[in-house]
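Students often ask why we bother predicting the structure of a whole assembly rather than each chain alone. The short answer is interfaces. A chain on its own may look different once its partners are present, and contacts between molecules only exist in the joint model. In this exercise we take two input lines together and write out one structure for the complete complex. Read the inputs first and try to guess which parts will touch.
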Amino acid sequence: MLHATEVIGAQTFDSLGNYVGRIKEIFVEPADQPNRVARMLIGRGQYRPLVARYDQIASVVPGRIGLTTDEAALDLYRPNEAWLAVGKDLLDQQIIDTNGRKVVRVNDIDLSDHRTNGNTELRITQVDVGLPGAVRRLLQGVVPPMAIRRIQEKLPPRKILWEFVNLIEPDPLRRVKLRLSSQKLAALHPADIADIMEELSPDERQGLIGSLDEETAAEAISELDKRLQTQVMEKLDPEQAAHIIEEMSPDAAADLIASLDSETSKEVLGEMEHREAHEVEQLLKFGPDTAGGMMTTEIVVVSEDATRGEVVDYIRFHEIPPDQIDNVVLINKDAAIAGTVPVARLLLSGSDQRMSELSFEPLLSVKADAHDKDVFELFDKYNLRSLTVVSRENHPIGAITVDDVVNRMHARM
Amino acid sequence: MSETETNSGSLAVWKTRGQNFMRRTRMTRRRLALFLAVVGPGLITSNVDNDAGGIATYTAAGAQFGYTLLWLLVPMTIILYVSEEMCARMGVITGKGLSDLIREEFGFRSTFFVMIAALAVDLGNTVAEFAGVAASMQIFGVNKFVSVPLAGLAVWLLVVKGSYRQVEKIFLVACGFYLSYVVSAILAKPDWLVAAKETVAPTLHFNTEYLMIITALVGTTIAPWQFFYLQAGFVEKRVGPKQYKHARMDVLVGSISCMAIVFFIIVACAATLHKNGMTNITDAAQAAEALAPLAGKWASLLFAFGLLNASLFAASILPLSTAHVICEGLGFEAGIDRKLKEAPAFYALYTGLIVVGGGIILLPKAPLFKILLWSQVANGVWLPVVLIFVMLLINRRDLMGDHTNTWAFNLVAWAASIITIILTVLFVYSLLTDPGSTGMSGTLLHWL
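Now the answer. The structure tokens for the assembled complex follow.
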């Protein structure tokens, strides 16, 4: 096994044994192969630097590299955005460890060497984020390589497999050129993605959001702290912001839009689909400290005369996502609230039982302009998971769920 | 008829005036709220500059040279502002801490040596802060074996148990306590006219001692750790480019208020100690005691209280900043908002600095003087390196975009950096050749 620090700075000799120069940088060409060291940059002092391709490298030992050709066969170096520079883009930079779900800083890179028909290929295997890499970086070139190896063997290793490494590249064009994917990252829980985003600088954060699909981005942004949410959304272009907000639940969307400055929020609402924008605008009319300001408008409303079987079929038919149905709201003939049925009660009842028989006692609801303190009290007193919000005429218009309450109370603490 | 018309007319005028007034106050209040959301790092960092070592130096300056050093505060404010503003700007624009940037742009080895210097300097300074706690509490009649462990524990608990916002609020209150020096100075009944004149139209002296105290003043005021702390503060508060104006204002208010406190300390000592010929007083606790017969018991107690506040304040921030810088640079997790388990290296460093820093004060035969001396020397070596890193980073277009220094700002900044570097080198030289001569924090030893 080799390390990037042992290769960068190594002396290079051609096939005749003549000294060519020192390795300044090594590149991976992700479009070609995600982990192979495809090119090595050889500095020659005052002369223009050369590039050795992977099939021109005969042997690699720490500090010394042999080529299969003579100097004249090497190409002159031309910078290429599609090459990942191990020294510049990786060493000392932050990366996301998608396995450990956090942001770490790279100390060194582990390389494996493979011999095939007379030449040696290097492949990146792991990223070193622990003490051994740090010690190597510090002592390389001062202490002989073998002595360093002896010291580092005694230190506890901390390494991340290359396939779990997610590079942070703020520039979207370069991301495409480097074929960087965020698949592994997107598979994490949104709360973990949010934690990772909080670790990054604003540009990097923006780059990360750009690399996620809109649904994942929406979920992750909902988990960010308020201040960051606003910052992130204001930096996105309005169209992208609108697409992300459309993925959120109406109450989260309304809260987010309310925190943007008035110009941005108008632009974003303008870019949103009409129906969703209208829903959000309705919610924005309520004060932030009222029941209306906390509620979501996504509720399931059925007639109090319906049977349990009808309701279950209705929910299945409309494919209502399970996290929206803590309660089923009942209405009477005048469309006024007649009761609420906690979903758990549906499980335990017969299929032709009437919904009115399953209703939670007492009949609870709040007016949309009720103060949020009253809402907290109701949740506390009746151990609620969800509470229906009604208009002045007693029509159900939304619901507050327990996580909204927890969020608000946490923010107050 | 016409009368009612004018009446209702004037009523309307009053109504609109009232509305305008309301709107204006609302706008002012909103602007103030925006500012207050950002304020903190600048104010705190600058005020921590007036730590135990700093106050000792200002006291010596006032006692020895009276009002004649006050002019120095104007250029010092500029130097402080210019250097801190650059770090604030870097934090706000890049969203990264100074040690992060040094690591990413200058590699592991440079970072490592910067970190080692940080550890050496800050450990020495932490010792000085605990010495300040011991000395000031002795004036209130508390033994150092009681005061130092208690102070260490209080400081440790504050950071380990508090969140960033809580801690910052406490620190901001501590900034307010510096006003005790203002009261102390007023009680000393100084000659304000002379003080004002010496600030703008100075009488310069040209002798070795005078130059020496100037180098000491600059050396204790511009300390590298504050750059790291300031930048990390803005990053942790998530102050973005939009709020940069407020961040800059915070730094400006901080630099000016810091130097204003220095002004009052020097004035208090000039009006009492210097006037009565007690020119060889070289530390703050001595000064506090000497103030009692000259300016009254309250002036003396307030002076001692100021020292206690400053020492405690700096004793909590220095280890904190150091732990932050080192962890950030070497890639360990750091931050007050992390739990103990999430950031073990951070808390180990923080705790270690407090325990060792406070513990040295309690050892009967610790080589205190040598520790303080070498930490000042390390500071002198460290400062130029960090200043140059800052100047190189702030002018990088790929990092800063349109927020690099303008040429005029660069001129001022390089001038400030070079002056600071020269004075620091002189300071270190004088320390090494004749350690007893400067009013440095080594003088804190008198109390131990």
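Check your guess against this: Confidence is low (pLDDT under 50) at residues 1-5, 437-448 of chain B.
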